[in-house]
Amino acid sequence: MKLxxxxxxxxxxxxxxxxxxxxxxxxxxxTTYFIDESTDFTGNGCQNDDLNTVTATLQTALxxxxxxxxxxxxxxxxxxxxxxxxxxxxxxxxLDDYYGDNALFSVYAGHGNKxxxxxxxxxxxxxxxxxxxxxxxGSMGGFMSGYAAYITSCTLxxxxxxxxxxxxxxxxQFGYHNSPWVKDDQPRDFFNGTTGTTNRWSWVNNMEDRPYxxxxxxxxxxxxxxxxxxxxTNIQNTAKLKGQLSxxxxxxxxxxxxxxxxxxxxxxxxxxxxxxxx
Length: 278
Prior knowledge:
- By secondary structure, the protein is of the alpha/beta class.
- The protein has a single domain, classed as Rossmann fold.
- It is 18% helix and 20% strand.
- The chain has helices at 11-21, 56-64, 131-134, 186-193, 199-207, 229-238; strands at 32-37, 68-73, 105-109, 111-113, 116-123, 126-130, 147-151, 172-176, 220-226, 267-272.
- The strands form 2 sheets. A 7-stranded mixed β-sheet has the order 2-1-3-7-8-9-10, with helices on both faces.
- A hairpin with a 2-residue loop joins strand 5 and strand 6 (126-130).
- Helix 2 runs parallel beside helix 4 (186-193) and helix 4 packs antiparallel against helix 5.
- The termini are far apart.
């Protein structure tokens, strides 16, 4: 049998990929993360405004809490990390089974649009990843992701949830209904806040304000999912990434779609601080 290995980025990248591949099945105490961040959008084939770094202190907080994983930035962060790998139906070259969909908590920080993520460096002719056309996080190839945060503009706009974001098979997705301005430490504060409050409340409370504080300009949204309406509400009202993750195994572990299959029925519910949309 031919051994399928991810393309190397560095010796560190290979060691992280091997470690993540050995993580125990979802539903156990698998506190793993994967982060891609793009801040340099100038002259790399994916032109846009450059951004500040917002996930460095998040990674430190995750590691301090006992989580393991990896973080890639700029030319080391690839669109294919979040592209479905199980077949070419979702675009060629997807590597989510080794990267974005091979950890319990998946994060992308960069630019975005409704149901869309944009990287700063083009790789194999690709700059953007579309949620419906390219992504199947939490299912098919990889199927490890249970919580995903998109620190990007408009990606979880409410008008695109059904047609785009809800193709992902997650417990919860966190993002923005509008174009946010995010301070360097806000993602860290979200994670740390889930010690004593729910993911939903920590996301909307910590991610609403742009610099300076108390402006109320961002529109953060937390979307939860469940096999039943009551399960969706329960996850929204009680799940805490840092405080009691083991109480919430991934509800779809036994029923999530395999390669090229359609999704079983599910319910979703969301909470938003709506300060305007895209």
